[in-house]
Design goal:
With 203 residues, this protein is α+β, with helices and mostly antiparallel strands. The chain has 6 helices and 8 strands, in the order αααβαββββααβββ.
Amino acid sequence: MKTNGRLLLVAKVMSQQLADRGPPMLRLSATLFTLILLSPAAGASALYDELAAAKIKLLGTTRPDPGMGLWAQKTNETMMSLIEGKWIDLGYSDLTNEDNMKKYCDKFGESFKKLTDYSFDIIGPVTRSKHAIHREYIFKTGISYNYRWNIEQQMEVLGSGNGKEILKNANGTSALLMMTPNTLLEIDFSFAQPILWGRCPTE
């Protein structure tokens, strides 16, 4: 790194001398020469900034070995402190404007209820039905949570003819991570598809 730094310094000095004293074509060549030499350093600096910012955003520090067990515990505590409220699946939501978002929340918003410090319930309304379907999430490890659908409610709402499929997907595991205080990323391990939850505005 020191050698590279010296080379860059020499290149800067030489280029500056050429730019100050040489004819126009030589000055242009000097400028291009400097840009070529400096571009890897600029790229490396931008890469470092990107990596450091990503680590700070996820782990809260640039230090090595921040203690992943402690990080997972704090991550769970933060999520559980923010989980209460009505949420929508942003993937299916109409966010073309704020009014459409509010209408979608009113019609399809799912209630997240904290049960304990390590578990919560999602209560999802069912279109054209007076019933709702519950599923409970229980902390497992890291950022993974086991979930369990209320199969009796599913049978009642969806019909016993769907029993085989209901039982097949009755239990599962998801990774949950708060992206911001109002957005929650869920990755269902069974389907390997992301669900980005967004908090609905309070009344």
